[in-house]
Design a protein that fits this description.
CATH topology: Alkaline Phosphatase, subunit A
Number of helices: 10
Distance between the termini: 38 Å
Number of domains: 1
Largest sheet: 8 strands, mixed
Helix content: 25-40%
Structural class: alpha/beta
């Protein structure tokens, strides 16, 4: 491998490796495509409070009590197709204000529930599969090979990792089955296991072998990087310094959370010690790792699960509540917990906005940003956490650059399958396919 290659890996003692982001000083030395297309999915469990997320539903009546597995829409979205500018954001979407020109709100997307499995487990595990109900033999799940792996077969052939699966479920109590805690599958019954520990993900991305027994990985790589910086211009030296500063920050955050977990383990809590780890910091740390992996070309396809479905073990939503709370339990008392649930929805949206802004600040070879070259989708397998509805799901599509329109609220006709969006994304990323799962067409309004 040539030293002056954009994909050059700087190797330290014992095999430590870090990939470099694009730098204009070195771009002439490579014949590779300068800008790769990428896809990432940001999955939020338990749905959302509709009146906070969806335009026009602020005054909807909230159902009383636990409605169980009711598949009923609370919304008043137009049942016909409509496309209009995304001008005023709803309260839950307010954290996206600074980046709203690069997002699309897509409403009216549905999935069909297949009777025979838990509503929460199916909404998560089948979210990126959307297989036609009752067509997958030998299983109760409408679960087939998920979109991320199908896309990776096309755009992930040359990356070290075809796909990466991130999860922000820090608990180890095994409350539920794998179907509640994973959205990525190689195929029916074949899980693509997510990584939940930031340190394990860091080691997977930047393999250190025996090196980290002696010195941390960033020190090793910086030693080998000294000669490279001599070949860089002023702007690239600044970019290089920023990049390694971000890696150093990730290491510091990991060390802090690990020390906190160790101290909490010594105390007898009613809740698991992990419940007291700061939730936002944990999510952003995992998100930073995902952004670095996409930035450096370690992968072009990633899934990011903010939390598991129907997991009653509490989390510490720092800045929201005085003690750990269970998102799932709150969702079953939406009438009384409405204000707290709206806070959790907005908390999750802030984490999504954080990652969008991080990606939008990273420059690519052609002057565009990492976000411009990534289809980064926010979504949930439930349209409402209280009624467990599978219709009118909360979906936001960010990025896509010159391939997609942006700044729109696209309301699809009633009954439009979610798979139509997945087919659209596959085509935007260059896949020569005309159908996906139970799709009936594409979201033409997204295409430029």
């Amino acid at each position: 491998m040539k030293r002056n290659s954009r994909r050059n890996f700087l190797r330290g003692l014992g095999g430590a490796a870090l990939a470099l982001p694009w730098m204009e000083s070195l771009s002439a030395a490579t014949a590779e495509p300068l800008v790769a297309k990428r896809m990432a999915h940001f999955y939020v469990p338990i749905g959302v409070v509709r009146r906070g997320f969806f335009p026009g539903e602020a005054n909807d009546v909230i159902p009383k009590g636990n409605l169980g597995n009711v598949m009923k829409s609370l919304g008043h979205q137009d049942p016909t197709l409509s496309v209009k500018p995304l001008d005023e954001l709803t309260p839950t979407m307010q954290p996206l204000e600074s980046i709203k020109h690069k997002i699309n709100l897509i409403t009216g997307m549905d999935r069909t529930f297949q009777q025979g499995t838990d509503v929460h487990a199916q909404c998560a595990s089948c979210y990126l599969s959307s297989a036609k109900p009752y067509t997958i033999k030998g299983t109760a799940w409408p679960l087939n090979r998920t979109l991320d792996h199908i896309v990776a077969d096309h755009i992930g052939k040359t990356t070290p990792f075809a796909t990466l699966e991130f999860s922000c479920n820090s608990h180890n109590d095994n409350k539920e089955s794998i179907y509640f805690d994973n959205i990525s599958w190689y195929g029916t019954g074949h899980l693509a296991p997510s990584i939940r520990d930031p340190r394990k993900m860091y080691h997977r991305l930047f393999s250190t072998q025996e090196a980290d027994r002696y010195r941390d990985i960033t020190d090793l790589v910086l030693e080998d990087a000294k000669d490279l910086t001599k070949d860089l211009g002023y702007n690239d030296r600044h970019k290089f310094a920023e990049y390694f500063a971000s890696i150093r920050t990730i290491e510091t955050q990991m060390n802090r959370l690990e020390q906190m977990r160790s101290e909490l383990a010594k105390v007898n809590f009613d809740e698991p010690p992990e419940a007291y780890l700061p939730r936002g910091e944990y999510i952003r740390l995992m998100g930073d790792l995902m952004v670095v992996a996409l930035q450096t070309g370690l992968t072009n396809v990633a899934t990011f699960m903010v939390g598991p479905e129907r997991w009653d073990t509490p989390y510490k939503f720092e800045g929201l509540f005085d003690k750990p709370r269970s998102h799932h339990q709150m969702s079953h008392d939406q009438t009384r917990m409405i204000d707290d649930l709206l806070k959790v929805d907005r908390f999750h949206m802030r984490q999504y906005a954080y990652l969008l802004n991080r990606m939008n600040a990273i420059e690519q070879a052609d002057g565009s940003t990492l976000l411009d070259n990534t289809l980064f989708t926010y979504g949930s397998g439930l349209g409402d956490g209280s009624t467990h509805q599978y219709n009118d799901l909360p979906i936001i599509v960010a990025g896509g650059g010159s391939k997609t329109k942006s700044g729109l609220h696209i309301n699809m006709p009633e009954g439009t399958p979610l798979a139509n969006l997945w087919l659209t994304q596959a085509q935007i990323l260059g896949l020569p396919i005309t159908e996906f799962a139970d799709s009936t067409g594409t979201v033409q309004q997204l295409f430029v």
